[in-house]
């Protein structure tokens, strides 16, 4: 019998947000302080967030800083950690 671990969503632990409804489109964050979390995809088009994202990460290198995630080259359908900023 195979069991699947439910996705952990960005904002759920950090801000107490409820998980999004089942079937919500998301993209996985790889590496850095948000590793393993999923981010809800918002917007249209085949490639969401072409320039990447800067997300609040209270557990990053800077207090109240941002963690930056970008697409790999070639893209693999996930966002990869690039570094943190204040």
List keywords for this structure.
1 helix, 6-stranded mixed beta sheet, 86 residues, 6 strands
Your description of this structure?
By secondary structure, the protein is mainly beta. It is built from one helix and six strands; from the N terminus they run E-H-E-E-E-E-E. It has one helix at 12-15; strands at residues 8-9, 26-30, 37-40, 53-56, 66-71, 78-85. Strands 1-3-2-6-5-4 form a six-stranded mixed beta sheet, with no helix packed on it. A hairpin with a 6-residue loop joins strand 2 and strand 3. The longest helix has 4 residues, at 12-15.
Topology:
Elements: E1 8-9, H1 12-15, E2 26-30, E3 37-40, E4 53-56, E5 66-71, E6 78-85
Parallel strand pairs: 1-3, 2-6
Antiparallel strand pairs: 2-3, 4-5, 5-6
Summarize the model shown.
The chain is mainly beta and 86 residues long.
CA radius of gyration:
13 Å
Report the span from N to C terminus.
45 Å
**SS element count, helices:** 1
Averaged pLDDT, please? Answer: 87
Beta strand %: 25-35%
Helical fraction equals: under 10%
Neighbour order of strands in the largest sheet: 1-3-2-6-5-4
Shape: globular
- Unreliable stretches covering 5 or more consecutive residues: none
Taking the sheet with the most strands, its summary is: 6 strands, mixed
- Please count the beta strands (DSSP E, at least 2 residues each): 6
Provide the succession of SSEs: EHEEEEE
Global structural class = mainly beta
């Amino acid at each position: 019998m195979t069991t699947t671990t439910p996705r952990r969503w960005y904002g759920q632990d950090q801000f107490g947000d409820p998980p999004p409804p089942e079937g919500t489109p998301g993209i996985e964050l790889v590496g850095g302080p948000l590793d393993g979390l999923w981010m809800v995809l918002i917007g249209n088009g085949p490639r969401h967030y072409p320039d990447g994202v800067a997300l609040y990460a209270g557990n990053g290198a800077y207090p109240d800083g941002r963690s930056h995630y970008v697409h790999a080259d070639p893209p693999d359908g996930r966002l990869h950690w690039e570094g943190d900023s204040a």
